[in-house]
Amino acid sequence: MTNEKKLELLKEFLKENNFAFIEDCVMHGWSMNLFMDKLKICVRLSDEDDQKFYKKIRHRYHPLFIRESETADFVIEKMQNLIFDLMTKEQKRFQKEQRQKEAKKEAQKK
Questions:
Q1: Which residues of the chain have pLDDT under 70?
Q2: Cβ proximity of 34 and 7 under 8 Å
Q3: What is the three-class DSSP state of 44?
């Protein structure tokens, strides 16, 4: 299966699960095949510039590469795992902020 076909299947999966994305986007001088703005995920078909792209983008965004050797199911599973990890981190950060706010209110009452 070609990488373009895997990308199409990934787009269908994201549409089915109501995730917003932008197709064929350019950021910081790099082109991406798909970009999920809310989660800051960049999807790109694998090519010779993967390492340069990864080094440039990794501090701001979460790159996901679609490689020729991977199956379509594996690409979708990678995306599911990445989304799950990002949402889990966001939930932990939110809970920590809530605990800090509650502790601050308790300290002000005393």
A1: 110
A2: yes
A3: strand
